[in-house]
Design a protein that fits this description.
single chain; 371 residues; alpha+beta; 6-stranded mixed beta sheet; 8 helices; 30% helix
Amino acid sequence: MRVATNNFLASWRRWPLCITLALPLILVAVETLAESADHMGPSAQTHSGYGAEDAALSPAPHEPEPIENNLCSAARYSKNLLITRFPRSETALASAGHLYKVEEQLPQLIGAQLSAHPAIAQVRYLPASFSNIRPIGTPQRAQQVRELARTQNVQLVLSGEIIDMSMARPNDTYTPSLASRARNGLATATHLRRLDTRQREFVFQMTLFDGITGAALQQWHYHNRGVWAPGRPHSVGFGSPRFWRTHYGKQVADTLALASTELAGEISCLPLISDLETDTGPTQVIVRSGTEQQLRTGDTLRLYQVVTRAIPGAYQLHRTHLLDSQIEVQIQEAHATYSFGRLSEELDLRHGRYVALTAELAKQDSLARAH
């Protein structure tokens, strides 16, 4: 009887430990009934309107959509794009795992995928970002964009911001309890990633600007999350092989592929806008675009005058819009970076600035109203 009592007491003392170990498994079993997906996948919101070893491994490039599958008339023309640095809204967001290089590498990863797309002739990078003191939609931001596009000789400018890379429960990755180890271990083994408590957010937005008017053409907002549980998690580095092998890194790669695809689709349907040489004859003109932008002999473009007006009460600030000249230019000879064209009627290009657009009239009129 005495031995039996001791056995009973010994087993009774083990009950709290058993419950502690079993509780996470019970929770997982219950939540499994309500879960059907392995991960949430990237989500996107779109807002439109005219107005070193760490980099040894990168996500697989996204295959561009064939031009013939794109129905917009401007799809065959390629444009030059400048991408700025994507700053973090809070500097502490990338602390976990030392992901500080995200500000420079995120734009470069997007640009690398865009470079394989026929809508892009050239991608350039700027190791600086726009100041939040001059927000989107203000004349100051538009003027910044115009000056930057002109000095860099690009038609479009892409800027962005990294909004969130936080962890809801960082201790579950860095100092996990016994219960969290059991729960997350089972979640990993069963590929039920949503049940893993080591989730990390990935939220960023990007805005595409027209370099002629400085207007914001389109804005995208992306939100995804993934499990952040790399081995030796304190020093991983954004874009490193260890980063891309994590579940979180795979979700980041998926989100960047989506962003690149949507951005390329938007750029595909924008008209090619080219500056003109001003020291040409009354009917002869040199267009600062050529075969690199897919211009061909026989193409017809429409001339628009770039009109700049001072903003009343604002010191050295201007608004810019495009005014239809009703004059067309036909490409007579196309070279790599420039083309020779003939105007439909005489025009003195020394008075004012003109650009040539490759688009149907309706698309041109929509862009001409941007300011």
